[in-house]
Specification:
heterodimer; A: alpha/beta; Rossmann fold; five-stranded parallel β-sheet; four-stranded antiparallel β-sheet; 9 strands; about 35% helix; B: mainly alpha; about 85% helix; elongated
């Protein structure tokens, strides 16, 4: 489904990785591992098409994502390092607007359910400013609850700031997505069950 | 696509309503600067009439620029901009929505307040009408050009000063035409040539600025 060929990433003067290749099939999970600063986030940004690789190419269903552009982005959900939440909007507004920008049509019922599922249903009407770090992360991740039909999920450190219950919850959601035939690419430092199940792509090597 | 445009404008207006002081800043700046001139220049009617077009236009231009750094910087900092860059719709649509919201928040209040402020300069009625028309045509151009500057300096240190340096030279034609139109009307001449040129500038800016803004945003986020 997604294939990286000979990817190279250069940040400033430093080459983070070179000649990197991977394949991600339907229903598979790929965990990107490596120490801090080894280029995990950079790789995910390349995968999302936010940063062009210094060399190599990424193919989605056999076609280069640079030429697919919008056709590729409509298949993808990316939860980045930053939560992309607006402090002045409520959790629910944040989720609704995030979905609309991503071209997803989510009914108020669906967004409420997604927030409920991540245990932030109670805070739906509170401005994001007053939420804790973990709650903000949960609101950002609630996007996944309405992204079931998008085949590719790219998650950058999704487990940071989450408590044990939320980690289990997220793992269950990722598991459902995999069994639905979706593909997931994620980075994490925590040893969580679901990540161990997938293949590992080590950047430090 | 129209729905996306609508939701971007709605989002930015909603954010501005939750933070009214930010919007009020630019408008208040405009009112204060324009209102101070009659005190400084003195009650000489002919002199006031002569400086009015320039004063109102320069103040409008600076007020519009004041709000520029807010345009993309906050979205860049909290990661929303990244999400906007990977939407399934053309980025120009989102950019257009954001610039439109910027104009609705800074341009429209200026257009609405200008006639009230122009009274302080004893501006004749037909000149006032031309002032409103010229601002209505000119302020969207300021927003569009300003957005190019804001996008190019995104993430740079001292972005505010840099934006001003980049954008001010490009503002000058708008200033000359806008103030010129009001001047002409004040002298009893036909201002339609100035206004048509301003209209042409607006169409040109609409057609040519969205793409460079989108490209600059992509580079800034890389």
């Amino acid at each position: 489904m997604l294939e990286g060929i000979g990817l190279e990433c250069v940040r400033g003067e430093r080459t983070l990785f070179r000649g990197l290749g991977f394949r991600l099939e339907r229903g598979a999970l790929l965990r990107v591992a490596g120490e801090n600063g080894s280029g995990k986030t950079s790789l995910l940004r390349i995968v999302c098409g936010l940063t062009p690789p210094a060399a190599g190419e990424l193919r989605w269903q056999g076609e280069n994502i640079r030429s697919l552009r919008e056709d590729y982005w409509k298949e993808l959900v990316y939860i980045g390092h930053a939560n992309a939440l607006k402090d002045d909007l409520t959790a629910q507004e944040n989720l609704r607007i995030g979905c609309r920008l991503a071209g997803l049509t989510a009914s108020p019922r669906q967004t409420a359910d997604a927030l409920e599922r991540f245990g932030v249903g109670r805070c739906a009407q509170l401005p994001a400013r007053v939420l804790s770090q973990g709650q903000r992360r949960r609101v950002a991740l609630a996007r996944l609850g309405v992204s079931a039909e998008l085949p590719l999920w790219v998650l950058d450190e999704p487990f940071t700031a989450l408590d044990a219950a939320a980690v289990d919850n997220l793992q269950a959601l990722v598991g459902e997505h995999l069994s639905r035939g979706g593909a997931v690419m994620l980075t994490t430092h925590q040893e969580v069950g679901i990540a161990a199940a997938g293949r590992r792509l080590d950047l430090s090597a | 696509m129209l729905k996306l445009l609508q939701s971007v404008v709605h989002r930015d207006l909603l954010l501005a309503m939750r933070r009214r002081s930010d919007v009020a800043n630019a408008v208040l700046f405009f009112v204060i600067v324009v209102s101070l001139f009659p005190f400084g220049v003195g009650p000489e009617v002919n002199l006031l009439r002569a400086v009015a077009p320039g004063v109102v236009w320069v103040a409008a231009l600076l007020a519009s620029m004041l709000a520029l750094n807010r345009l993309f910087a906050a979205d860049h900092a909290d990661g929303s901009l990244e999400q906007m860059l990977i939407t399934p719709a053309p980025l120009s649509v989102i950019v257009f929505g954001k610039v439109a919201a910027h104009w609705l928040l800074t341009g429209v209040p200026l257009v609405a307040l200008a006639p009230v402020l122009a009274v302080q300069f004893d501006m004749p009625n037909d000149a006032m009408l031309v002032l409103v028309t010229s601002l209505a045509l000119g302020t969207p151009v300021l927003s569009l050009i300003g957005a190019i500057g804001a996008a190019l300096t995104l993430g740079a240190r001292g972005a505010g000063v840099l934006t001003a340096l980049l954008v001010l030279p490009l503002y000058i034609p708008v200033l000359i035409l806008g103030a010129g139109a009001v001047d002409a009307a004040g002298a009893g001449l036909d201002a339609s040539a100035h206004l048509m040129l301003l209209g042409a500038l607006l169409l040109f800016a609409l057609a040519c600025s969205l793409w460079p803004i989108a490209a600059a945003l992509r580079i800034a986020v890389e």
